[in-house]
Design goal:
InterPro entries: DUF6350, RhesusRHD. It is a multi-pass membrane protein. It is found in: Membrane. By secondary structure, the chain is mainly alpha-helical. The chain folds into two domains: about 5-175, no CATH class; about 185-400, no CATH class. The chain is built from 13 helices and seven strands. The protein has helices at about 5-35, 45-55, 70-75, 90-110, 110-135, 140-165, 175-185, 185-220, 225-235, 235-265, 305-325, 330-355, 370-400, and strands at about 60-65, 80-85, 140, 270, 275, 280, 365. Strands 2-1-3 form a three-stranded antiparallel sheet. The relative contact order is 0.11.
Length: about 400
C-alpha cells in the first residue's frame, strides 16, 4: 500500500473513531431530548454535554460554574470547580479502535505516516469539539483537548502496530542512531528487557482480569441494591438507558479501583474516606447505582486479594526465565525487577488516570493514589517476579547438570 493511501485511510479512520466515541455520548442524550423534553428545548445544550463527556473520558478537564439559581437548588456554591475524573470507557473505546488503525498501518509498512495522520485528525476534531462545547456552565480546557485525545489515540495506535509486527515476526524497527545503539546491547540483555515489558503487561492484564471478575461478582451479589437505587432515581426508560450507558463508561474505572484495592492502597470516594483491605471509611455517597457495590465494611476474605499480584508476579517471572535461552544471573535479576517496574508504571498510570475530581467540596478527591499504587504494584509484582526468575534459573541449572 502506498504511503499516501495509508495517510488518507488513517485520517479517515481517526475521524470515525472521534465520531463513534462522540456519538456514544450524543445518541442517548438525543433520545432524552426527543422523548423527555419533546424537542422543545435547545439541542445545543445536549450537544455541548456530549462533547464534554467525550472529552472528559479522553483526559480533558471540564471547568464548571453554577449560576446562583442552580447552585441554590443543588445546595452548591457559585465558585468554579474542575471535573477531572475520566470516564475510562471512552478512552478504552478510542484505544481499541486506534489499535486497528495501527495494525493496518503496520501491515502497509508506513507506521509513522499513519500515526502522524491520525494524531493530527484526532487533535483537530477534539479541539473543534472543545471550542463548540463551551458554555456559561461548563467549559472544557481546549489546550488539553489538543493534547490528551491525540495521546490516547497514539497509545492505541502504537499498541496495534507493535502487536502486528510481533505477529508477522518482523520486529519493531528503530531507525537512526538509536537503532544502532540498541543493536550494540547484548542479545541476552535485550531479551531480558523485552521479557520484562511482556511480563509486566501480562501481570497487569492478570490483575485487571481478576478485578473485572470481582466487580462482576459484586454486581450480581448486590443486584437488589442496584435495582433499588435505579427505582429511587425514577429516571424513566430513556433516562435509565442514559444512566446505564454512563455507568458502563465508568466500569473501567471501577475495575482499576478494584485492582488498587487488591494491591492494598485502595481508593477514596471523597476527601477523608478510604476503601481498602485495611479498613473502609466512607461518608454519604451520590445515588449512582454502581456505587451500590462498594462494601460498607472490609470483606472477611479481603486479605486474600493481596495474594493476586504476588502469585501472578511469581508465575510470570518463573515462566519467562524458564523460556530464556541465554543469560546470566544479572539478566535474571533484570528480568524479574523489570517485570515489577513495568507493572508498577502501568498500574500507577491507570490509577492516576481513573481518579480525579468528581465535583466540588469533598468530591475533589475520588479514586486511588496513582503514585502509591504504582509503588506498591512495583513491589508486590516485582519481588515475587524476581524470586520466580531466580527459582527458574536455579531449576534450569539443576536440570542441565542431570
Amino acid at each position: 500500500m502506498k504511503r499516501s493511501t495509508t495517510v488518507l485511510l488513517s485520517a479517515l479512520e481517526a475521524f470515525v473513531i472521534v465520531a463513534v466515541g462522540f456519538g456514544a455520548a450524543l445518541v442517548p442524550l438525543t433520545l432524552l431530548w426527543a422523548t423527555t423534553f419533546g424537542l422543545a428545548v435547545d439541542f445545543g445544550a445536549f450537544w455541548r454535554t456530549a462533547a464534554d463527556v467525550w472529552l472528559l473520558g479522553n483526559g480533558v478537564d471540564v471547568v464548571v460554574r453554577f449560576d446562583e439559581a442552580t447552585a441554590l437548588s443543588l445546595g452548591a456554591t457559585t465558585e468554579a470547580f474542575t471535573l477531572s475524573i475520566a470516564a475510562l470507557g471512552f478512552a478504552v473505546l478510542t484505544v481499541l479502535l486506534a489499535a486497528r488503525v495501527g495494525r493496518r498501518a503496520a501491515e502497509a509498512g508506513h507506521i509513522l505516516a499513519g500515526l502522524v495522520s491520525g494524531v493530527v485528525v484526532v487533535g483537530a476534531f477534539a479541539a473543534l469539539l472543545g471550542l463548540t462545547a463551551g458554555s456559561a456552565v461548563a467549559s472544557p480546557v481546549v489546550v488539553q483537548a489538543l493534547i490528551f485525545p491525540p495521546l490516547v489515540f497514539a497509545g492505541g495506535f502504537l499498541l496495534g502496530a507493535i502487536a502486528e509486527q510481533r505477529r508477522s515476526a518482523t520486529g519493531l524497527e528503530v531507525p537512526g542512531l538509536l537503532g544502532d545503539r540498541l543493536a550494540n546491547i547484548p542479545s541476552a540483555v535485550r531479551s531480558a528487557i523485552a521479557d520484562a515489558a511482556r511480563g509486566g503487561g501480562v501481570a497487569v492484564s492478570g490483575i485487571l482480569s481478576v478485578s473485572a471478575a470481582v466487580v462482576g461478582v459484586l454486581i450480581l451479589a448486590d443486584y437488589a441494591t442496584l435495582a433499588s437505587l435505579y427505582q429511587t432515581l425514577q429516571a424513566g426508560i430513556v433516562g435509565g438507558l442514559a444512566l446505564t450507558l454512563a455507568q458502563l463508561a465508568l466500569l473501567p474505572n471501577a475495575i482499576v479501583w478494584t485492582a488498587s484495592w487488591l494491591l492494598g492502597p485502595g481508593f477514596a470516594l471523597g476527601t477523608g474516606t478510604t476503601v481498602s483491605p485495611g479498613g473502609t471509611v466512607i461518608g454519604p455517597l451520590p445515588g449512582i447505582p454502581l456505587l451500590g457495590i462498594v462494601p460498607s465494611e472490609t470483606p472477611a476474605v479481603g486479605l486474600f486479594g493481596l495474594l493476586v499480584p504476588v502469585v501472578l508476579g511469581f508465575a510470570v517471572g518463573y515462566v519467562l526465565e524458564r523460556r530464556a535461552v541465554e543469560g546470566t544471573w544479572l539478566t535474571t535479576a533484570l528480568r524479574g525487577v523489570g517485570i515489577g517496574l513495568v507493572a508498577g508504571v502501568l498500574l500507577g498510570l491507570l490509577a492516576w488516570w481513573s481518579s480525579g475530581a468528581a465535583g466540588p467540596g469533598r468530591l475533589v478527591d475520588v479514586g486511588p493514589d496513582g503514585l502509591l499504587v504504582g509503588a506498591v504494584a512495583a513491589a508486590a509484582v516485582g519481588v515475587p517476579a524476581l524470586l520466580g526468575s531466580v527459582s527458574a534459573r536455579a531449576t534450569n541449572r539443576v536440570s542441565s547438570t542431570l
